[in-house]
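USER: For my understanding, would you kindly supply a protein sequence with its structure tokens?

ASSISTANT:
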Amino acid sequence: MTSRRSELAELARLFLRLGATAFGGPAAHVALMEDEVVTRRGWMSRAEFLDLLGATNLIPGPNSTELAIHVGHARAGWPGLLVAGACFITPAALIVTACAWAYVRFGALPELAGFLYGMKPVVIAIVGQALWRLGRTAIRNARLGTIALAAAAANAWGVGEIEVLAASAALSVLVQLGRERVSPRFAPLTGAGGLGVAASVSSGAVGLWPIFVFFVKIGSVLFGSGYVLLAFLRTGLVEQRGWLTEGQLLDAVAIGQVTPGPLFTTATFVGYLLAGSLGAAVATLGIFAPAFVFVAASAPFISRLRASATAGALLDGVNAASLALMAVVTVYLARAAFVDPLSLALFAAACVTLLARPRWSSAYLVLMGGGIGLVSGRV
């Protein structure tokens, strides 16, 4: 009992800190978690971490939050699942709620340009290091290397994330099946079907229940990046219901991007605009609750998937493609982050620090970069 309590306490401390400091979007969140749970704490192997990452791409919802929930389950069972997820979400939701209050009170977003300027080059260094470490585990043969390169090229040419992941998984499975046809050992694939939930929002005045149901639907069916979230929110909130203006929606998405933790806390901001603090709480609960359900339902199958040669090939393909998508996002982020000599110097300094002091927490490096950016902006 004491051991389990200490595991839960350690999970809570880690994910509360990450929820309050994990700037940079899902790719950065994955890199920070890999650094903390694999490199620094040794809670799992890099291959196990990759399988959890791959599993998040097979279910709807916010990938980095689902990865946190998976890590919690792997570390401390069902209580760990709840603790890790709640602690990763809560600090970000509170920060976004405070930003929403300031937005409503003063009619503008907080000034964060200097902080973001200094943060971005450090995030690029952290993600690059994680890609290198994870890639050495995931891309272990020419087949997976080819899949990763093809996935990166397809995504860079405009093919959507879901299509890239599906094609990569299918290609990897087809190659594995071809091998099994000439092998005396054949392991048939047995697994569970997909998950899906649908809901509809009533067409009355904006109240807590319609807000909750709307965001439950989003959290239950949304695959893909934060830009896919923007499309869902624009259709549902602006065009169909008229709950927000275009400008308010863009401000909500901007706050979700520049604050730490999950991008899906955009829902927290929207909920506050619609119904104050209670609206923020209800929207947050609605959009994140399905992630806990999907992870709880899928977690027991991950080890079984890896035990099957065919299902393992599916995970291998998804893992390779996931890293390729992270790499493409990192390239785009780098183009926006490297704008002058100081930003390049921050990137170089972060790279050197990560190599020389691998035990340092990456989250603190992000905060230091942001602090330097604030100071440089004032000067």
About this structure: The radius of gyration is 21 Å. The CA atoms of residues 238 and 246 lie 7 Å apart. Confidence is low (pLDDT under 50) at residues 184-205. The longest helix spans residues 63-106.
